[in-house]
């Protein structure tokens, strides 16, 4: 068994799965590079075929790095430290910080609030992080005065996710500004044929 706890049998299965995933990608790359039809794409110089396979592994390597960074960021969101990330990856804490600089949020300065504010469409929402769960919630007031909040049993993993839901609430609670609407209508249509007074929908008092 290796240091990371994978057995010989698991290694064989992993290699097979990777090669099975690589084969169609390498074939597609080879076909494009060679310009040969599907049934002849592996013809030609062996070195060219080998380079096509290497190109496919490069694509896989890039994707694995992206997924690895996502996994590190997810772990950091749930409270993992750079020391823990480094231990899992077999590198130092400093190495983990360099490899995934955005994975772990920096601690707030003493006395600073972790809360955040979202201002959108004339409304405001407050994002707060619970100490116990580490999850994020939101409460807000729309431009029309309507109050809203996350469902009682909902906790969001990141402030960005909470902000997205708060923003959707604020966008749906716009205040109708009658005077502004009237000014826009006057600018567009003119005032010569206007009927009524200064009310947004006609004569005041009608």
Biggest sheet descriptor: 4 strands, antiparallel
* Average of per-residue pLDDT values: 80
Strand arrangement within the widest β-sheet reads 1-2-3-4
| Low-confidence blocks of residues | 108-112, 197-206
Secondary structure class reads: alpha+beta
Q: Enumerate how many helices there are, as a single number.
A: 6
Q: What is the distance, rounded to the nearest whole angstrom, between the alpha carbons of the first and last residues?
A: 85 Å
Secondary-structure element order, as H and E? Answer: HHHHEEEEHH
Explain what the structure shows:
- It is a single chain.
- 48% of the residues lie in helices and 10% in strands.
- It is α+β, with helices and mostly antiparallel strands and 206 residues long.
- Strands 1-2-3-4 form a four-stranded antiparallel β-sheet, with helices on one face.
- The longest helix is centred in the first third of the chain and has 32 residues, at 46-77.
- The radius of gyration is 29 Å and the shape is flat.
- The N and C termini lie far apart (85 Å).
- Residues 108-112 and 197-206 have low confidence and may be disordered.
Core attributes:
206 residues; alpha+beta; flat
In short:
The chain has 206 residues and is an alpha+beta fold. It contains 6 helices and 4 strands, in the order H-H-H-H-E-E-E-E-H-H. It has helices spanning 8-34, 46-77, 82-89, 93-99, 159-171, 178-189, and strands at 116-120, 123-129, 136-141, 147-149.
């Amino acid at each position: 068994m290796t240091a990371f706890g994978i057995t010989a049998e698991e290694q064989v299965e992993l290699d097979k799965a990777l090669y099975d995933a690589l084969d169609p990608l390498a074939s597609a790359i080879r076909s494009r590079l060679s310009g040969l039809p599907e049934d002849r794409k592996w013809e030609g110089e062996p070195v060219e075929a080998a380079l096509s396979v290497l190109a496919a592994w490069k694509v896989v390597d890039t994707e694995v790095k992206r997924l690895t960074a996502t996994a590190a960021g997810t772990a950091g969101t749930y409270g993992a430290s750079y020391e823990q990330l480094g231990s899992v990856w077999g590198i130092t804490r400093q190495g983990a910080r360099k490899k995934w600089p955005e994975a772990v949020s920096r601690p707030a300065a003493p006395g600073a609030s972790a809360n955040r504010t979202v201002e959108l469409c004339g409304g405001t929402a407050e994002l707060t992080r619970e100490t116990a769960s580490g999850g994020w919630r939101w409460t807000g007031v729309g431009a029309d005065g309507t109050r809203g909040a996350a469902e009682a049993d909902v906790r969001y993993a990141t402030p960005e996710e909470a902000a997205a839901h708060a923003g959707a609430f604020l966008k749906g609670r716009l205040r109708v500004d009658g005077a502004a609407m009237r000014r826009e209508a006057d600018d567009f249509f003119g005032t010569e044929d206007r009927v009524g007074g200064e009310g947004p929908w006609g004569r005041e008092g009608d």
